[in-house]
Amino acid sequence: MTEDPAPPPRGFSRALIVDDHPLFCDALALTLRGVCGVARVDSASSLGAALERVGKEPLPEIALLDLDLPDVEGLDGLIRLHAAAPDIPVLVVSSLVEPRLIGAALAAGAAGFVPKHSGRDTFRAALQALARGEIWLPEGFTPSRDESASDAVNRLSLLTRQQAKILDLLCQGRLNKQIAWELSIAETTVKAHVTAIMRKLGVQSRTQAVLIAQQAKFASFVPEG
User: Fold this and answer.
1) Separation between Cα atoms, residue 19 and residue 21, nearest integer Å
2) pLDDT in tens, 24-71
3) Given CA atoms 96, 99, 100, 103 in this order, what sign does their dihedral have?
4) Which residues are CB-neighbours of 72 under 8 A, at least 6 positions away?
5) Is 148-220 a CATH 2.30.33.40 domain?
């Protein structure tokens, strides 16, 4: 007696696209609905809008994130989105495909990486892999042996959503008092968060924490040329 074939893996029914290019968003949404079987596709044109969306029900089951957004630089958007919604797998969809950047994105919490120029079949295969709990990487990807910037990203990925937000404000030169006002929290709370940030990053000063954050910028992973 033959056994029944195993049922196909359950796919994603709700997705969030985070990209500020409307035409690409529309095309990717059509692909997700028509090829990948996603019933509901929302979009956000900035990290701020994406963070607001993942704070509301029903939560997306997967996020497809462009790294180049108007309100973030480098891998900061990925780090903050992963901190805000660690249970939602993030598939990075980027036109930048440097091996060091791909490796750093994985270190920052990405569940996979798909080049923007990929075809529909690639997106379908990537979502199927993520639904099975697997990592999806571009064909032929070879990890870089340069671990300096990836180590910085690893440490940054330990931050909570609030800590990542505060570090971003520190990078903008804000003082504790200004951060407290902007986030509507007590200044003592800001000081406690800054102390925790420095401990997680393994540094002794705010300046060193900012330098660690700078290593997560695109320039750290994309060679000049």
Assistant:
1) 6
2) 999 999 999 999 999 999 999 999 999 999 999 999 999 999 998 988
3) positive
4) 47, 80
5) no
Distance (Å, whole) CA 105 – CA 117: 18
What confidence category does residue 143 fall into, taking pLDDT thresholds of 50, 70 and 90? low
Q: Is 166 left (phi over 0), alpha (psi -120 to 50) or beta?
A: alpha
Cα torsion 152, 199, 194, 88 to 10°: value is: 60
What does the domain layout of the chain look like in residue ranges?
14-131, 148-220
What value, to the nearest 5°, has the Cα angle with vertex 112 and ends 43 and 78?
55
- Find, among 71, 75, 65, 78, the residue nearest to 220 by Cα: 75
Query: Nearest to residue 15, comparing CAs of 111, 108, 143?
Result: 111
Handedness of CA 45, 109, 172, 163 (dihedral sign): positive
pTM: predicted TM-score of the whole model, two decimal places? 0.76
Alpha helices (H) along the chain: 22-34, 47-53, 76-84, 99-107, 120-131, 148-156, 161-171, 176-183, 187-201, 206-214
183-204 per-position pLDDT tens digit: 999 999 999 999 999 999 888 9
CA-based end-to-end distance of the chain? 63
Two domains, one topology: 14-131 and 148-220 = no
DSSP structural state of residue 76: H
Q: Which CATH superfamily is domain 14-131 in?
A: Response regulator (3.40.50.2300)
